[in-house]
Amino acid sequence: MRYVGVAAYSGEAPPDLVSDTKEFVKGLVSCCNGKLVLVVGGYWGLMKVLVDEALSLGVKVLIIPPIELENINYPEDSLVIRSGTSYRLRSVILVRTSDVLVALGGAGGTFQEIVTAYDEGKPTFVLGGRGLPTDKVRFIAPYIDDRRTSKIVYVENVDELVLEVCRELRCST
Fold this sequence. Notes:
Rossmann fold; seven-stranded parallel β-sheet; 7 strands; globular
C-alpha cells in the first residue's frame, strides 16, 4: 500500500486547479492499481475536491483534521483520525504518515507541509503555475538548503506530476 500525502489549498480553488486535482487522482489510481491511500488534513477547499474524487473512484482516504474541525461531517467511506492536534501539528502527522508529499497549490499551511516533508526526508512534488503562493517553490527547488534531505520536484503540468509521483512510488505508468 502506498500512502500519498496531499497538501492542498484550503480556500476556493481556481477551476483549472479543480480539474487538475481530479486528473491527478485518476492518474494515480491508474498507475498504482488501487494500492493507494491518500492522506489529507481536512475536508474543505481543494482537499474536499480531492477526497470526493478519490472516494468516487474507490480509493482509500485518510483524513487527519485539526482539533478545531474534528467534529464536522466527513464522508462515511473515509477514515478519520481525530488526533486532538492543532493545524500545524496535524500537518506533521500527515507528512510522517506519508511515503511522499504532493502539494497541489496552497499558501502558508501547504508551505509548512513542504518544509516538514523536506526536513523529514520525504520526496516532495509541487504542482505550480496556478497563481497560488506555492508557485514560489520553483525558486527554492530542488533543495531548500545544503543538507539536501530530500528532493523537491516542481512541475507545472499535471501529467508530469503523475509520472514523477508514480516513478517515485515505483508504480507502473
